[in-house]
Design brief:
16% strand
């Protein structure tokens, strides 16, 4: 599917899952090197920025969260020309769809007269993506707050899996964004030669937006580490308390087992056994000994 948007004689063409015929049409219309055709048709696993004749070819992978539980990446190929921008992608991308609606609305209203070449549209589009990623990082933050509430409500054991899941999402989110730094830094000098010195100014603003999103992810990562350490400490403390209780119970019951074993021996000289009320005497001895151990453990504050 191909959609076209125009503002101030600058054309933006957006293509979803491009077909060979659509790519060939673009090659002919914009006199684009045919070697790009194969790259536009097949997904790429690495970002890149190259100057190809009279355009700049750029690939970026934008991380996307789905319900703060699943992580996914959208690849977008950018062909940035003097008076056009071509974006190709392989699936629907919500931030790009929202940007298109805002772009068309601003065109109708005559807003944003600063867009005079394809580089301006790219910068505005990339900024919209980073702002959307910042909003998605807030989704992760809210989930961390929910986990924190459960941790301090005594649900530490179940939160182990939840914390690991959020950690995986943040890790993939950060890894996808880290690759943008080198790409954006490489784009600035190339774009400055292609569009003029003012392009560097806009790129520095874009890099600043990107770095703010990255810092938010770093803060989320730090918060996750602290939350994981707190949860592990609470879980370890609870397990230690259980083990201590079980150990004390073993110490209390051990002498009782010993006494019952002694008086259960088949000997002729076993004391008490055979006397009137011998069962109650043995039982009382066992109870007194158990009570003594219990009082001693409480006195030493072991219980």
């Amino acid at each position: 599917m191909v959609t076209r948007h125009v503002r101030r004689n600058v054309l933006w063409i957006d293509i979803v899952s491009p077909s060979p015929a659509e790519v060939r049409g673009l090659m002919d219309e914009f006199k684009i090197d045919s070697t790009l055709a194969e790259e536009l048709l097949l997904p790429s696993f690495r970002p890149k920025v190259e100057k190809r004749g009279e355009l700049i070819y750029l690939i970026l992978h934008f991380p996307v969260l789905r319900g703060a539980h699943q992580h996914h990446e959208h690849e977008i190929d950018f062909l940035i020309g003097k008076n056009f921008l071509i974006t190709t992608r392989y699936e629907n991308v919500d931030p790009l769809h929202n940007f298109a609606k805002a772009f068309d609305a601003d065109t109708v209203l005559g807003k944003d007269a600063t867009i005079t070449h394809g580089g301006h549209i790219f910068i505005a589009m990339a900024r919209a993506f980073y702002l959307a990623l910042g909003a998605e990082s807030d989704t992760v933050r809210r989930r961390l707050h929910d986990i924190e509430d459960h941790v301090f409500s005594g649900d530490e054991r179940r939160m182990v899996a939840q914390i690991s899941d959020v950690g995986r999402v943040i890790h993939h989110f950060r890894q996808a964004l880290l690759s943008h730094e080198e790409t954006l830094n490489s784009l600035e000098p190339v774009g400055a030669k292609f569009f003029g010195a003012e392009f560097s100014y806009h790129m520095r603003e874009l890099v600043g937006t990107y770095e703010r999103v990255l810092r938010r992810l770093e803060n989320l990562h730090d918060s996750l580490d602290e939350l994981r350490e707190t949860n592990n400490s609470l879980l370890s403390t609870k397990q230690n308390e259980i083990m201590k209780t079980l150990t004390m119970m073993a110490f209390v019951t051990f002498p009782l087992s010993l006494i019952s074993s002694i008086f259960g021996m088949n000997t002729h000289s076993t004391p008490i056994v055979g006397l009137p009320g011998d069962f109650w005497m043995v039982l009382g001895l066992m109870g007194a000994l158990a009570l003594s151990f219990f009082v001693y453990f409480k006195y030493r504050k072991w219980l």
